[in-house]
Amino acid sequence: MVYVHSSPSAVCPHVEWAISGTLGTRVDLKWTAQPAAPGQLRAECTWSAPTGTGGKLVAGLKAWPMLRFEVTEEPSHGVDGVRYCYVPGLGLWHGRTSANGDIVVGEDQLRALVSQARSGDAFAHKLDELLAANWDEALEPFRHAGDGAPVTWLHRVG
Fold it and tell me: Which Pfam families does this one have (predicted)?
């Protein structure tokens, strides 16, 4: 999925061009008002393409730092899923996801966290970073405002 949680109207065509260029098919998203940010628009689309396309979509969307967006790539045979979140002021977060959508924190990440944390507060802060707590907190009002919004279905050509 690509969730564009908020975009100025002038940037919406650029978002569509970025997604179109990555997927190799014309994209015409259904933009609706974003109640959590008056004057901004939102859109979402489901896409189907080879593994790794999510990162390419994110690279295209990051060109507009005023956007709030999420890109999720479902897990496939032998490959973890990935979730990307972008929020102005916080930047980009990405992490692996399990089949049910939970964030997967790897063994090496946990070992590094334990070895580097100097206090319980530092541990909790770093764990929140690994689990995207600040991004979820910032995006949650935008997610709820999009409940019931139209979804566009896209498939990569070729």
Answer: DUF3145
What letter would DSSP give residue 53? H
CA distance 145 to 8: 16
Distance CA 41, CA 37 (A): 8
Residue 77 exposed, middle or buried by CB count within 10 Å (0-12, 13-18, 19+):
exposed
Say how many domains are in the chain. Answer: 1
Rounded to the nearest 5°, which phi and psi values hold at 103? Answer: -75, 135
Cβ contact 144:35 at 8 Å: no
Residue 40 is classified by DSSP as E
| Structural domain that includes position 117 | 2-155
Residue-wise pLDDT tens digits, 55-111: 999 999 999 999 999 999 998 888 889 999 999 999 999 999 988 889 999 999 999
pTM over 0.85: yes
Q: Tokens in use for 54?
A: 């999510």
Q: Could you give the 3-state DSSP secondary structure of residue 2? A: strand
Residue 68 in contact with residue 87, Cβ under 8 Å?
yes
Q: What is the DSSP letter of 11?
A: G
- What are the residue ranges of helices labelled H in 6-132? 12-23, 53-61, 107-116, 120-130
Sort 87 into a burial class: Cβ within 10 Å, 0-12 / 13-18 / 19+.
Answer: buried
